[in-house]
Write a structure and sequence with these properties.
The chain is α/β, with parallel strands linked by helices. It contains eight helices and 22 strands. 26% of the residues lie in helices and 23% in strands. It has a five-stranded parallel beta sheet with strand order 2-1-22-6-21, covered by helices on one side. Strands 8-19-9-10-15 form a five-stranded parallel beta sheet, with helices on one face.
């Protein structure tokens, strides 16, 4: 089938090029490849940032994919011929639209009382590259998802003094459990035991593997690991060493922030501390609501339910986002071919 890819950036894999330098996939390479193209054999089990960029470049080259770079989609709406897609450089009519702009499109930047008075440096996690600018400094990381946990570890291992501000509870699981990738362990467990039993068993196993982290200020959410993934799409922290540094006292954990001062913060409960820099590891939001003008979804957090508009990369199961993207891409392509009776036609993907 004919297709058009609109890409707002100017290179393949642009978002990966902006990620912090030490980033590796948290899912194994055999379950993280895109359709029809495996990773090279010499790639490690957990593919690094630069290797993944090379893989995406090779993928586009191998399949002769030629995105229209530098075209930001401004509006997608229904018209009498199907869908009208307007970008910064063109207008396209297409019978189908695939939205593949992902979960992590737009950084979420919270505001705190007094934030405008802070004299130090505040950066979002999306702008963090490495620990070099923070060596010897006290750094507060706000939030403890996978990005926050790994930035804290990177800072700790490279001469900074990191503290994590954690407002709510968080599930932490080791990336490898007893030598096996947790991705495989979770996949097997969910296949043979009901979710409730898994959520009862996992805390016992995790305390054995990581130690009881509650004494260091880390509490588990009321929802179990798998329940939280299923209901809110929130993936646990896949630990590669942060928990150990917390137990050693090299990474501190403090409550949420109630205010920011000129040289530090006031935590919930009134404790104050000075920090030279603040990293906001506060996540991202999808950007499709900014351009996709369609009906509402079927519930809170649901994707819009609209015929002939497909979404790829917006569901993050415990078995891995990249694995899910590969499965979704095949299903979408098959569905479009089926609907058209096997005939070719232009499809716009953004």
């Amino acid at each position: 089938m004919d297709f058009i890819i609109l890409e707002k950036e100017h290179r393949v894999g642009a978002s990966w090029r902006r990620h912090y330098e030490r980033l590796h996939l948290h899912t194994i390479k055999s379950l993280s490849a895109l359709p029809l193209r495996k990773f090279d054999r010499d790639y490690p089990r957990y593919v690094g940032r630069e290797q993944f960029i090379r893989y995406l470049e090779d993928y586009a080259r191998h399949f002769d994919l030629k995105p229209r770079f530098g075209e930001t989609v401004r509006r997608v709406r229904r018209d009498d011929r199907g869908w009208s897609v307007e970008s910064t450089a063109c207008a396209i009519s297409a019978p189908y639209v695939v939205v593949a702009s992902g979960l992590n499109s737009t950084p979420v930047i919270p505001t705190f009382p007094g934030m405008e008075n802070y004299q130090g440096r505040i950066v979002h996690g999306s702008a963090y590259v490495n620990a070099a600018p923070f060596a010897g400094r006290k750094v507060l990381i706000v939030g403890m998802g996978n990005t926050g946990a790994e930035i804290a570890l990177d800072l700790c291992d490279n001469g900074a003094e990191p503290t994590i501000s954690l407002r709510d509870g968080v599930h932490i699981v080791p990336r490898d459990l007893f030598g096996l990738p947790i991705q495989l362990v979770a996949g097997v467990a969910t296949g043979i035991m009901p979710r409730g039993m898994n959520d009862w068993v996992f805390p016992i196993i995790l305390d054995f593997a990581l130690g009881d982290l509650s004494k260091y200020g880390i509490k588990r959410p009321r929802q179990g690991v798998l329940e939280q993934v299923a209901k809110s799409g929130k993936i646990p922290v896949l630990d590669i060493g942060t928990a150990k540094r917390i137990r050693e006292g090299k990474i501190k954990v403090r409550p949420g922030i109630s205010a920011i001062t000129a040289d530090g913060v006031v935590f919930d409960g009134g404790e104050t501390a000075r920090f030279d820099a603040i990293v906001l590891a506060t996540g991202y939001r999808p950007n499709y609501p900014d351009f996709l003008h369609v009906g509402d979804g079927q519930g809170a957090g649901a994707l819009p339910a609209e015929p002939d508009v497909f979404f790829v990369g917006f569901r993050n199961p415990v078995t891995g986002l990249l694995r899910e993207i590969s499965k979704e891409a095949k299903k979408v392509a098959s569905d479009i071919v089926r609907r058209r009776g096997g005939s070719a036609g232009a499809t716009a993907a953004s």
